[in-house]
Amino acid sequence: MKAIAFVSSLCLLTACERVDFARRNELSLVERNAAVETLRRNAAALNAGDLDALERTIDENSPVLEEAMQSAEAMIVRFGPTVGIRDVRLVSEKRGELVLGYVQTIAVKRGHMPFSAAQVETTLVRGRNGWGISSTRVLSLKP
Predict the structure, then answer these.
(1) Which of 38, 68, 83, 119 could bond to 139 as cystine, CB 3.0-4.6 Å?
(2) What distance in Å separates the CA atoms of residue 54 and residue 75, rounded to the nearest whole number?
């Protein structure tokens, strides 16, 4: 009975999307959702100006960790940004790594930016503390 409840719950979580458990190198939808939640927590931390929370969303082994933190701090001080995440899609995946594409919206409280949105691809890796952002590429900027 517990197994039926678990499978039913999984089906509801995925909106009854087919799940292929035979393909072991693909991540579960629960894992994919956890990665998307990392993106959302990253945006929320940036919006709140919480650098500690922001750092927890970045992979500790990322070669851009220090640069990302310095850039985020400068952006918070100068612009007071409010960012959002929408239209998230899976670009690629392999065991322990996802590339997600999405639109990141941005509004600023101070100053002016010549764009209000960006098409972005972010690589997330699975670490011992969950998903962490490894790198981000801005593909295009939108006015």
Answers:
(1) 119
(2) 13
